[in-house]
């Protein structure tokens, strides 16, 4: 009998990570994949477009969780996924990343004695004020198999006393996604649609609570972006959370009035990566963009005090900055005053899904 595998997707970063693995597993005769969408991102721009981008089918199961506090999302997902497993028990549950659904589904499966594999395991920011850090630590503690994207992740898990046989270094699945979609990304015309020339603009994404929930920090960032937009065109993909905070604190109009500012809605993966690949600079607080820009060798300024992806700073083109440093750091990049000697970390090669399939087949006795 084929092994039944649940592949959990919850939020935008999850969709781009599960896509290459879904396609790789679906091609195997020894397993059947059930794609489970928890519904943590329920806006069409934030989820449905990503399924279309990656040629993913309609989810086999949609839990419809929606928004709420961390406890509400986690609790509702835990209960809903437990019921799904009781109704149709999988042989394996694969969770991805560090969102609330990651720990919720891992916990539900673990308590039902269903083996759990965590894709993108071992990442640590050392900042427990980040809810994602709590999700990572707890998921890694209970998962049976930990698929890591980088050597430092293995070191983190070993330092936490996790048995070596539970850990498998597989590489960075995000870059499988990029290579899977590279042709469509390069042929997409989002840059042309916005009238942008390669290396003559910067891409901005900001959404984390530490940056957008504090009026003072948000105003500092807006002021820096407005001043920077007089020197280079800024393409700012405005997350719904960020837009709400900008409107709440009467800062949105200041951005809209800046002549060099292009405010756009959140984009699907293909459109967004078409913008990123042509950028001279990226400004973000996202985790994924730190990895993608390292792979592409594009300077990235990450507005955060810590990162769970330190390898992008050590080997890549990423630099951590505070809100007050944004303007000067960006100006230095644009003037060529910063020397980036980025290299691709080990196994960041677009072949991670194949290594995962091989490891899971071995562990499943196939």
Explained architecture:
The chain folds into 2 domains: 3-172 and 349-363, Rossmann fold (3-Layer(aba) Sandwich), CATH 3.40.50.2000; 182-334, Glycogen Phosphorylase B (Rossmann fold). Helices cover 46% and strands 16% of the residues. It has 17 helices and 13 strands. The strands form 2 sheets. A 7-stranded parallel beta sheet has the order 3-2-1-4-5-6-7, sandwiched between helices. The protein has a 6-stranded parallel beta sheet with strand order 10-9-8-11-12-13, with helices on both faces. Strand 2, helix 2 and strand 3 (61-62) form a beta-alpha-beta unit. Helix 1 crosses helix 7 and helix 10 (215-228) packs parallel to helix 16 (326-334). The N and C termini lie close together (11 Å). The model has no long low-confidence stretch (mean pLDDT 93).
**In what range is the share of β-strand residues?**
15-25%
Radius of gyration in whole Å, from Cα?
20 Å
Unreliable stretches (pLDDT < 50, length at least 5) are none
Q: How confident overall, as mean pLDDT?
A: 93
Q: Name the quaternary structure.
A: single chain
Q: What is the CATH C level class of the largest domain, in words? A: Alpha Beta
Using the coordinates shown, work out and report the CATH topology of the largest domain.
Answer: Rossmann fold
Shape: globular
Number of domains: 2
Cα-to-Cα separation, first versus last residue: 11 Å
CATH architecture grouping of the largest domain: 3-Layer(aba) Sandwich
| Number of H- or I-type helical stretches | 17
- Topology as a string of helices (H) and strands (E): EHEHEHEHEHEHEHHEHHEHHEHEHEHEHH
> Helix/strand-derived class?
alpha/beta
Task: Report strand order across the widest sheet.
Answer: 3-2-1-4-5-6-7
Instruction: Spell out the CATH superfamily of the largest domain.
Output: Glycogen Phosphorylase B
